[in-house]
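Crash report, auto-generated. Payload:
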Amino acid sequence: VRRFAFENGLSLFFGAIFLLTLAGQSLAGQRAYNQEQLEHNAEPLSWLDYVLSTDFGGAVLENWQSEFLQFALFILATVWLVQRGSNESKEPEQAGVESDQRQRVGGYAPEGAPEPAKRRGGARRWWYENSLVCAMSAIFVLAWGGQSLNNWRQQNEEARQHGGGTIGWLDYVVSADFWERTLQNWQSEFLAVGTMAVFTIYLRQRGSPESKPVGAPDDETASSG
Amino acid sequence: MGSAWTRESCFRSRALRNVAAVRTMYLLYWAGIVAGLLLWIAVGVIDP
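Recovered output after restart:
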């Protein structure tokens, strides 16, 4: 068990703090939601009802979509775009999808390579070559769609409570409310990614693969510490 | 000879266990993400 925990520590740690913070968000969210309900002389919600509400669903998916978009874009952009001196970038001369030899596919695949990588070409190899971006993008699209549905229901519910008219989903996805919620998440993700690309040129964290080795020169690109 | 074989099979079974553990972690992450997406997309579609 100790060996398992050590060898999977990164995923276990982030999985655990994800569950803890999601639980914390649901408890704090329920309290805030019920406070507002009381102010409007409305019935408070139980924890389970709150977790299954569009208020909570929208808040969760709103953040999920932006995180997965961030990684999908970062993975894809770093194929062609480079940043000299950054640990997050590859060497400028490697910009692009690179040769089969360098990517160890087709005839250059080693013995232990995954089966689709050994193929000479075709749809299965294409799919496998792009599987990481495809997975991250699919989660982004589904989370963004889910966010829009939850936010739309929530906005219509609020409109009903205030005696206003409701709108259709298609009208909601072009509304200022939806784009304000969406863009406020995107801007923070893009700033964080850009900052990582630039800060890792000059700043270090000893022992982290997200940083260059402490003694690496500032103009050294693509080295991991 | 016998002990070498035992050592090798022991090493191989540990390697297989490691592969299974890592795969389990990967599937757990997928399961959590898919469950969350399905749950809250359903909430958005049905609005319980």
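Post-recovery validation: The mean pLDDT of chain A is 96.
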